[in-house]
Design a protein that fits this description.
Residues 91-128 form the EGF-like domain. With 163 residues, the chain is mainly β. It contains one helix and nine strands; from the N terminus they run H-E-E-E-E-E-E-E-E-E. It is flat.
């Protein structure tokens, strides 16, 4: 039963199974290696597309196979068409901490490359250093003759008859 589970999990790491997409392959050189079939299941039509065969140049990447590193489950990735644990393939180290053991000194966020992305006003590898902001704050504009609002009395001739 366990063997079946692992084989079933590997299904997601084999040949690509696509939905929607273009009418023909988008890669040059494989338009002659392409087939399209319409099937009907319980009155619903489905279009199946496939490419096959060898592509002329040796530098053309494998087509139709899931790429290494594609997720195939929680903490699982495809590697050589097999669904395997992610953990042996990623750096298990943590981000830098301060003397109190706080990751990124609680003044930043740990990135996927185990580096601290510091909050504004903090710096250093562990975000423990205060950084003075050199950006000048905007000042309030002083009134000038051009931007001064002038209040003027306006008279509207209501009720006055024209002669």
């Amino acid at each position: 039963m366990l063997t079946f589970f692992f084989r079933h999990r590997n299904v997601q790491c084999g040949t690509l199974q696509c939905k929607d997409g273009e009418r023909q392959p988008v890669n040059d050189g494989i338009d002659q290696l392409y087939s399209r079939t319409i099937i009907s299941i319980k009155g619903q039509e489905y279009e199946c597309k496939a490419t096959s065969g060898q592509v002329g140049s040796n530098n053309y990447p494998e087509h139709g196979l899931v790429k290494d590193g594609t997720p195939c489950g929680d903490n699982l990735i495809c590697l050589n068409q097999t669904c395997v644990s992610l953990f042996p393939h990623v750096d298990q180290t943590k981000c830098p901490t301060n003397k109190q053991g706080q990751e990124c000194s609680e003044h930043g966020v740990c990135t996927n490359t185990n580096r601290c992305f510091c909050d504004m006003g903090w710096g250093g590898t562990d975000c423990s250093s205060v950084v003075l902001l050199t950006t000048a704050l905007p000042t309030e504009a002083l009134p000038t003759p051009e931007n001064t609002i002038k209040m003027e009395k306006k008279e509207t001739p209501y009720g006055k008859r024209r002669a």
